[in-house]
Amino acid sequence: MNKLTAGLLLVCATTGIAFGQTGEAPKAPGNATKFTKWIITVADLDKSYAFYHEAFGMEINGTAQIKKAAPATAAILKLTNSPEGTIFRNISVHSAGLDWYLEMTEFTTPGGHAPTMRLQDPGATYLRLRVRDIDKVVAAALKNGGAINSVGRAVMTAGKNKVVMLKDPDGHYLEITQPGEIPATAPADSMVIGGNFVAVVEDADKAVNFYKAQLGLDNQIVGWNTNEATMNMFGTPGAQMHRASIFVPGTKLQLEFIQFKGIDTKPAHLRIADQGSAQLGLQVEDIDAAAKAFLANGGSIETAGGITKRPNGGGGGFVRDMNGFLVELNQVAPPAVSAAK
User: Fold this and answer.
1) Number of domains observed in the structure of the chain
2) Binning pLDDT at 50, 70 and 90, where does residue 138 land?
3) Residue 9: enclosing H or E segment and its boundaries?
4) What end-to-end distance do the CA atoms of the chain give, in Å?
5) What is the rounded CA–CA span in Å between residue 91 and residue 185?
6) Has residue 57 got a pLDDT over 70?
């Protein structure tokens, strides 16, 4: 086994979900109940949809179409803490190979900006997607405004697997893997056959410990990875990388936190409306308790005026954790009770 193969196979072993699902944990009581979506802020919704549709076969949910941009409603301005005069539109897309959906939001805001994010910078995020044909994905990505971030600007091979780090037209990163064997359970008509979320942070252990203690999420902590081939695949040569992940007990979908050292890093504090920003959708049982937990542990409430509670018992709002990672909390309204006859 050569150095490149050994290094990239180490990625498989330490990511857990990169080339195979993690085992399910027993269901335990906890405030967090479900990861629902991954939200990315884009500059041009039409171009972004074309990228994900052509490269990954993602489709708009339901019968919705991409609408023309329009002034954001008062509710959107409050939810995203955006200034008056903001122009907004969004869509959600889905793949048969995923049990969550990708939401794309386009903001045109007074004073808005598009920061340049390197993969190693705290504040960067990326999607890890498993696909049937990585060469077709890369060709379509490059044709639709994407780029390769890996050293050598090419797909790498690790045993029977192929991997590469891409960037979409807005600078969002994507770690793409083609497994050597496609699971028999994978949808036959889907390019994407699985995926999860990753956030780059300043302190990965602190992050997972917070989510476990305060929201009931389970965690898995992996040691530092210094392998040269692994770092080249990420496009961060010479770095060291530490991984820690969280998941809702009884589920397989992970949010992974990555921390880099041995390389220049520059933390970024992106707003919800900033191009390149990404947020996790997290469903909870008690949104007030969840928001208080974020505040008590160095986080903040990002929704203007605080978390919104609806008359039907539901609620929603954005929070930022101690690492600067953005989360959209959602509390589902309880089922309506039918009136007695």
Assistant:
1) 1
2) very high
3) helix 3-15
4) 73
5) 28
6) yes
Tokens 């203007």 correspond to: 304
SS (H, E, C) 246-285: EECCCCCCEEEEEEEECCCCCCCCCCCCCCCCEEEEEEEC
The answer to whether residue 248 is domain-embedded is yes
pLDDT higher at 65 or 49: 49
CB atoms within 10 A of CB 257: 29
| pLDDT score of 207 | 93
Domain, as residue range, for 218: 3-330
Beta bridge partners of 280: 38, 327
- A 10 A CB-CB count for 132 gives 18
Structure tokens, 330: 């959602």
Q: pTM of the entire structure?
A: 0.88
Q: How many CB atoms lie within 10 A of CB 288?
A: 14
Residue 158 in tokens? 């690790």
For residues 254 and 268, give the distance between their C-alpha atoms in angstroms, rounded to a whole number: 23
* For range 155-171, the mean pLDDT: 92
* Residue pointed to by tokens 């081939």: 229
Residues with Cβ within 8 Å of residue 45, at least 6 apart in sequence? 66, 69, 89, 90, 91, 104, 106
The answer to whether position 116 is within a domain reads: yes
Each residue of 191-220: pLDDT tens digit?
999 999 999 999 999 999 999 999 999 988
134 Cβ neighbours under 8 A, 6+ residues apart: 155, 162, 163, 164, 176, 177, 178
Which pair of tokens denotes residue 286? 């008690």
- Does 10 score more than 90 pLDDT? no
- Does residue 339 lie within any of the structural domains? no
How confident is the model at residue 114, as a pLDDT? Answer: 67
Identify whether the C-beta of residue 169 lies closer than 8 Å to the C-beta of residue 48: yes
In a domain, 198, yes or no: yes
CATH of the domain at 62: 3.10.180.10
